[in-house]
Amino acid sequence: MKHRIVAILNFLGLDIAKAMSNVRGLRFFLKDRRELKKQLAGSSDFTFGRNYPILHERNEEAGILSGHYFHQDLHVARRIFKYSPQKHVDLGSRLDGFVAHVATYREIEVLDIRPQENKVKNIQFRQMDLMQLPEDMVRYCDSFSSLHAIEHFGLGRYNDPIDAKGHEKAIANIAKILKSGGIFYFSVPIGPQRIEFNAHRVFSVQYLLNLLDPFFEVVHFSYVDDPGYFHKHIPLKKEDIANNFGCYYGCGIFELMRK
């Protein structure tokens, strides 16, 4: 019942945990403001503008070095740097994470159903629905990535058409885009298979292996577990596959070779 109430409040834009943290931080804000005004008394270097209270960060860690996006973005960017493909294309990965990492050292072409007007060096953007693959993209590149994106295909979250087979169509079209022997870096949530509408799908590892097998050979498998820790290049043992590597909502990261 408690989780349901929190979910409803979050849906309404009310973050109870942050609100409580803000209330606790208010007395420190007022105390610190008085102290700063006291120290600035008689100085004309700075005047006080409007108050802009940030009250919930006093006891937080210095940024986030864990979780799905941090580990997958860093890991795959390193792999692409190591192998230096002729042409790398990405589908729907995070622009201010993975794509930015890669763009620091090479060109990357980005495909997304959503528009993006900003122009940035080393990033070529192409708005498109991958369900409608243009002929000029068949055997288009030798390296492709899609990180934490394909689980959304066909659920309408990004104004895409509802399609129960959207994820399957995406995989089949990516296989067409890649040249033989090309590498596909792929990540999605793993755990007991389900749809959490309209946010995402969660896939069982066995389902993913069956889905990928007609097109790809697994080179490496890595994953981020539920607490957010990274496990690199893990053997695909039957018992681990069967229990999704102990994940309820983990992140499976596949390095795949086009057959």
Textual characterization of the structure:
The protein folds into two domains: about 1-60, no CATH class; about 70-259, Vaccinia Virus protein VP39 (Rossmann fold, 3-Layer(aba) Sandwich). The protein is about 35% helix and about 25% strand. It has helices spanning about 1-10, 15-40, 70-85, 95-105, 165-175, 205-210, 240, and strands spanning about 90, 110, 125, 140-145, 180-190, 195, 200, 215-225, 230, 250-259. The strands form two sheets. The chain has an eight-stranded mixed beta sheet. Strands 6-7 form a two-stranded antiparallel sheet. It starts with a helix and ends with a strand.
Name of the top-level CATH class of the largest domain: Alpha Beta
Through-space gap between termini: 49 Å
Which range does the strand content fall in?
A: 15-25%
Helix content: 25-40%
Extended strand count: 10
Class by SSE composition: alpha/beta
Largest sheet: 8 strands, mixed
Strand order of the largest sheet: 3-2-1-4-5-10-8-9
By CATH, the architecture of the largest domain is named 3-Layer(aba) Sandwich
Q: What is the H/E order?
A: HHHEHEEEHEEEHEEHE
Number of domains: 2
- Round the Cα radius of gyration to an integer and report it: 22 Å
- Could you report the average pLDDT, rounded to the nearest whole number? 94
